[in-house]
Design goal:
It is a single chain. The N and C termini lie far apart (37 Å). Strand 1 and strand 2 form a beta hairpin. The strands form 2 sheets. The protein has an 8-stranded antiparallel β-barrel with strand order 3-4-5-6-7-8-9-10. Helix content is 5%, strand content 65%. By secondary structure, it is mostly beta strands. The protein has one domain: AOC barrel-like.
């Protein structure tokens, strides 16, 4: 179900590769990236794995934390919509990326919610050192699981 909701929430495409020195992680001009994050939620923290394509290819572990504020009940139920924000860390084989994010959190039903919004790189190391960038994302969470897609433009 998470995969179906993710596909519906975002039109996926293959990132453009202009301005990229393939394999080195070097970005000479703006280049698109796509990051897929999947995993399990433990005590409010989303831990799992990621895969990066576009300006570089990489994979590793992910850690994402966030909270929802300004929550409002939806149709008098115990479902809340509101504004979510947080940060994430991607620890890859070729380097690390840190990012912040914010967006709108909307429940789909009692066990699934969707968050859409924007993200930006706040730190980087290894082959990604000095990367700057931002973009949009969609996050689908179920009971104890999550799947997300972050897309955007990076420069060096």
């Amino acid at each position: 179900m998470l995969v179906a909701l993710l596909a519906v929430a975002l039109t996926l495409g293959t990132p453009a590769m202009s301005g990229v020195n393939h394999g080195s992680g070097s970005v000479t001009a703006g280049a698109l990236i796509a990051i897929t994050v999947k995993g399990r939620d433990v005590a409010g923290d989303a831990r799992g794995t990621f895969a990066l394509i576009g300006a570089a290819s990489d994979a590793g572990t992910s850690y994402v934390v966030g909270n929802t504020t300004s929550a409002q009940r939806v149709l008098g139920q115990r479902l809340y919509k509101g504004t979510s924000r947080g940060f994430g860390e991607l620890d890859g084989k070729k380097g690390d990326l840190s990012f912040s994010w914010s967006g709108s959190h909307v429940p789909v039903n009692a066990s699934t919610s969707v968050t859409t919004g924007t993200w930006r790189i706040t730190g980087s190391s290894g082959r990604y050192k000095a990367w700057k960038g931002d973009g949009t994302f969609v996050w689908v969470g179920g009971i104890g699981t999550h799947e997300a897609r972050f897309e955007g433009l990076v420069t060096r």
